Amino acid sequence: MAFLTFLNDPDNNCHIFECGTGRQLDRPAIRTTAEGVLRYLRDLKLQKGDAVMLLGSNTTSFFLGFLGILMAESIVCPQTTDKPEGDYSFFLKDMDAKAVLIPKDIPYQAAASAAAALDVPVIFYKLEQAKGEHHMQLTSNAEASQAQRSAAKTPSGKEAGILNYTSGTTGRPKGVMASTHMMAVREEAYQHSIGYSPQDRVGVTIPVASATHKLAITALACGATLLLPSGGHFNCKTFWQEACEYAMTTVVIVPTMLKLLLAEASQTFPAHQTVPLQRFWSIGASLPTSIHDVVRDTFGASVYEMYGLSETGVATYNDPASPQRSRQGTAGLPVPGFGIRIFNSGGELMAKAGESGEICIKSEGVIKSYWHRPDADEASFLGDWFRTGDAGFLDADGFLTVTGRIKELISCGGAEVSPDEVDEVLQQHPEVAEAAAFAVPESMLGQVAEAAVVLGPDSKLSKEEASAVLRKFAGTRLAKHKVPMTIHVVASIPKSSAQKVQRWQLAEQFGGEQGPNRAARDLSSLNVDEEVQGAWTEELGAPPETGSDNFFSSGGSSMQAAALASNLSKRLETSVDSTLVFQQPVVHNMVTSLQEQLTGAQAQAPSDVPAGPQRLSEEQRRAGIPILKSSRANNLTIGRFTDGVKIGIGVNLIGPLDAEALRKSHWALHERHESLRTVIRPQPDGHMPLLLVQPMSEQMCSFNICNADSKQAATAIARDAYRADYNDEKGPMMRIQIIRLSTERHWLIMAVHHGVSDQISMVIMLRDLAAFYNGFVTAQAHNLPQLAVHDTDHTAWVHQKEAAGLFEADKAFWRKTFAAPNSGLAGIDTSEPQSPPEPCSVHIKMPSQTLQHIRSIAQEHHVPAMAVVLAAYSTAAAQVLDRKGVLVNMIVSGRDHPALETMVSCLIHNLPISLPEAGQCGSETMLKTTAARVSSAMQHSIPYGLIKECAGEHMNASTFLYLNADLDMAQSCPEFHGAQASRLDLSNIAPLYGSFLLRGYRRICLFLRADAEGHIVGGLTYHPAYLNGTQADQLLEKFQGLLQSTWSS
């Protein structure tokens, strides 16, 4: 095994020395003792590539077991001894362990019980010494051993190596398998960078399961001596005694341990004597810059930061031997053989120095896949580059700075806050020993920062004083949105076995302390006026002068309004919606509204006949909106939806594009629009409530096709976007893709689940996306109007109307329409077609069409009738968004504007969108593209002049056309034109539109599309209150007859 060849090198003089016991083994003793483990495993008939779990701590016996398992060409999985039985069971099953080694003197019952339950042999190990020679005493439980001996002798076919598991803080742990080849690559790189020498005496402090044991192996390969701590564990109280007594020269350590040493320095550091320790290697987390100088001044040693993960090994380092290759406060330069790049969230390379993004690593020493987790592989690689999940940037000289975990970044109103930055500022306060910032949910901003601190032993601050004092301190050093909303005093910060801060535990502990989860408060002692003035002062920097002061006239922005509401929520210990600040921006009005809210004063309850959708209370949103049960369960299918449930839009962007600003805008869009974050959760009783959740936004995908056939490549990308599955139960409901044609031209592709949005909503969302983008690029407030009605509000309103029996007239209208002999295309909204539409952001109109009408349109424009049917189903109505943002329905009925209604997907006039330095979006090209799509689908030429005639005077540079997914599906099917009407399948499509019924604003849908095999398929989804089974069958027969008739024409 290449990376263990040092054990046979007569010139290598490495040693393992155990502090406390004084036990020492030289290289020959290490080899012969480890060979004893090898022989024992071979006697148990373990095969090459079998997995073995090894429990222990930083002891000599552990390292000998570790080496012996590798020498047996098995897979070693090191684990600490402090886990619960369930964790060991998971690891044993996941790795398909053939044995588990446990220290004999301390038989860890949790691991032994887990192994026994899975019939995995347990081997107890202990290092013995007799006549000056060391050997490993190994004993196994006889029953398991016999079972192992009788097992099949077929080799596993797996390569030997080291299997570590990630911490699992954001999901179940993932196995990280470093093969012997990867280990050899890493070892060679480490020897030429970190450069241990035979004179080094290397302290080992980090727990064995953290993957840093690989650095310990490198130290042995370099001929150095490993110094193992007394008891096998790091102890800040005895560290300096052992470092001096055994002449430690260097040590690998994590920042938490270094901070502990500093905290205990006055009691434990021998300032009166010469200390041999010269270098601290810091790994595992970024080290605050201020710590470097403190360590040097206190201990006389230098700190050199490294960076790496279990998946990559050490990838960057600061070189002690070269000042030019070392930079304080950074993670250093790449280790030889390792490449470092920064990519943005869209997968584009960030080429400029200082640009932040995700750190990605490429090397032969990096894993190519996770252990039995193909689901994790796809999201973890950009080509050959491994995505670390860490945020950072490279400076002009190539030094890496790590700013934090991407999943731990706090997204406050779309602006990202690094918890590491907040930690460092708080730890600068003399009263603070430790600090950890974390994210908590907030209704308007999405998330806000909070923090937990451990006060120093000499601190004079009380818990009650600490939050205000430390917030004021942070406010002078951080941007306002980065200052923690609340600072909690705790006894200790939760950490993993590798001493990494577990922010998620703090978020779980403190994230639910708002509103109803807190104890009742005595309102008689609460001065609302003072609390409003205090929050106002914190957000605007000065108190209101009079009760008539207006928050926005005093300089407040929409972002500050949301922060004010969040601040008031904390102060008043109740949920304060940010809309209150917009509705009551004047001080005395705001105070009055809050007093009414706190004392339970409520507006008059709505009548039994609601006039229109009303904004739901936060309690209603948390409880979920009850969905009426349907008597026809097959119409209520939810889950994975494909093809026919997407609305797509394509936009031309001319000019430079700030991808990071667009990504933030994407997130902010999800926070603003509830329809993008509503899910349906089926209940055992058959009800399916609609729930509002936190943003489910996926990362934007970015594709660079500068050197490709742009039309063909972009078509394939857009088609994949529309074909991607949506899930009503889990989300997300929107996907955005950026297609880069050149530095000056991009295509923006948006696809939305049709169950939560329509064409009108997409217009609003596109406007909002542009406003957010402008705001992030120019650092100005977006000034968007409040959305008076949301998807959830409209759904609740529909169900209130349903319960009040207000749909009887609508039912009568549709029954009459369907009874007409020439009825073909059915209206798809709740009520009879009307203009203007009811005031909601999730609304769409489509008048019913007759067969004669379809044929008349086709004859007038010299196109086949099937093209009219397709176009009719690609559009419901043409809508105009004027300069004031008012929706106007252009279509009164099909007889008034048949061509516009059937040929133009959606026409947007004077859309107020402008991207900095990007010019206007959209052009006549989009109209031509639409014509080409229909022509390709039908293999008939639909003249461009016809579509331009439909657009009429509204055609201009700010025009956008909606490209419906049905046409994309048709275009992708070569056999579309040759499909036979007799092969229509009208039975398997209806469940796709079940989402419309569940969400409450659709009652009847007839639809048509081309399936993956080129067949034309259609179907009907309906609410049983509108049609019974017989009527539905009759309508389907009419529909099929219409399709057959128009197809043949």
UniProtKB/TrEMBL annotation:
Residues 136-174 are annotated as: Disordered. GO terms for molecular function: catalytic activity; phosphopantetheine binding. It comes from the Eukaryota. Residues 523-598 form the Carrier domain. It holds the Pfam family AMP-binding. Residues 137-153 have a biased composition (Polar residues). GO terms for cellular component: cytoplasm. Keywords: Phosphopantetheine, Phosphoprotein. PROSITE patterns: AMP_BINDING (PS00455), CARRIER (PS50075), PHOSPHOPANTETHEINE (PS00012). GO terms for biological process: amino acid activation for nonribosomal peptide biosynthetic process; secondary metabolite biosynthetic process. This is Carrier domain-containing protein. The lineage of its organism: Eukaryota, Viridiplantae, Chlorophyta, core chlorophytes, Trebouxiophyceae.
